[in-house]
Amino acid sequence: MIMSNKRHNTGEQNVGTTKELPSVISFCSGYAGIERGLDLAGIKHRIIAYVEIEAFAVANLVAKMEAGQLDSAPIWTDIKTFPSEIFRGKVDLITGGYPCQPFSAAGERKGVEDERHLWPYIRKHIKAVKPNRCFFENVEGHVSLGLSTVISDLAEDGFKTAWGIFSAREVGAPHQRKRVYIMADCQGKFRQRAIKTRSVEGQPQKETGERSIFAETTRWPSGNNGIHGWPIEPRLGRVVNGCPDRLDRIRLLGNGVVPQTAAKAWLTLTEQV
To answer: How many domains does the chain have?
Structure first.
């Protein structure tokens, strides 16, 4: 376990101590893109634990904690040994972008045969912690490989589920980056008072599957200069003098989520569950 000591000294001090805001465990945290998406969606929350194995991502999380940009909380580096039992009954929401390699079209798509297939461990922790809601992200290829198992498992464990495919282009990015988001709600117990009133323009364009939403029409406010309001990175090679840790940064971004997309997915799927 890794701990930023800026504001807290031990993991035990962080477990289940926040009654004012919904508490969150972040699995496969990356740079906390999903949690940033919650912020953009107006969801006040408090992260009480992170689980992330990549060293550069862990360093990034710690740096953000030290800068006051993320909630200070312990970081576990092995999801397989995460002590979920100490969080039982103390967590409102579990989030996670579990590894996409078992399902990605860019890989061999080994599914459950891939050693990076972590869904069984995440499900184990969900059953131990008993959160009120879960919110997950993965690649579009997960829809045709493995998603039905995830939905079935969540339903068997007492959750009402909704899932949808959302793209970065929908929120103003100059690229597609389609991702599937999954929301699972346990009998409406998630503390809705944490949700601010916020409207999203447009409606889902079409539905595919019983609870699937493919929302292509939502428009978000434009950002800075660039195509669709997003700034464009200069043409730089993967290894460039003067750009420290560039490969690690590219890897972190490549494995992460677009927070604006996560925000839209949350707001859209919340209406479904």
So the answer is: 1
